[in-house]
Write a structure and sequence with these properties.
Elements: E1 6-9, E2 11-14, H1 21-24, H2 44-49, E3 61-64, H3 75-84, E4 88-91, H4 96-105, E5 108-111, H5 114-126, E6 132-135, E7 140-143, E8 146-149, H6 154-162, H7 166-171, H8 174-183
Parallel strand pairs: 2-3, 3-4, 4-5
Antiparallel strand pairs: 1-6, 6-7, 7-8
Length: 185
């Protein structure tokens, strides 16, 4: 997994509430375990009815509405965001299973409180091409004069900073696991 530190990018903005995993990546595109190419299918059906969902490939940050990633458990939805180049999603809240899948795959989810989220949307409406910076080092989102903070679980934050997935995190304890197994073998 790529270590996470700081990303600066123009942000794509989709403030609609309840964008579920089927909207992120329709089920018909989940036919295998190959992550490559899924980014081209990101929001496929939504792009047909709303051009806002045609996300600029240069955007690395997505500012979304509340309950982003709700619905079915689809790790493929996270893979599609990653393959498209999205490194971080900022929203007021996220679907629970989606949050776990994001953490496992190195996609940073930054939940902003209501007033901070509204201020970010206002700023991006006024200056849509202004770069946004997300720092996992100090848990901040910066856009122009705005400096906002988000909370993240301490262990997850460290795993993302170190670029460790669940297996890597477990392997850090290999010596202890071996000692335990040999004691009870």
């Amino acid at each position: 997994m790529t270590p996470w530190t700081i990303v600066t990018s123009r942000a794509a903005v989709l403030p609609d509430a309840d964008i579920d995993t089927d909207k992120i990546l329709p089920a018909r595109f989940m036919k295998g375990l190959d992550r490559r190419g899924l980014g081209a299918r990101l929001f496929t059906d939504m792009r047909v009815i709303d051009p806002r969902f045609a996300i600029d490939p240069a955007a690395r940050i997505l500012v979304a509405g509340r309950n982003f990633g709700s619905g079915s458990s689809r790790e493929h939805a996270v893979w599609a965001l990653d393959d498209h180049g999205i490194r971080c999603v900022i929203a007021p809240s996220f679907g629970g299973i989606f949050s776990g899948n994001a953490a496992t795959n190195g996609l940073l989810l930054g939940a902003l409180a209501g007033d901070d989220y509204a201020a970010l949307l206002d700023r991006l409406a006024a200056a849509p091409d202004e770069p946004v910076t997300v720092s996992l080092i100090d848990c901040t989102v910066t856009a122009g004069p705005l400096l906002l903070t988000f909370a993240i679980d301490r262990d997850l934050r460290q795993a993302l900073l170190d670029g460790l997935d669940d297996i890597d995190r477990t392997l850090r304890h290999a010596a202890e696991i071996d000692a335990f197994e040999s004691e009870y073998a």
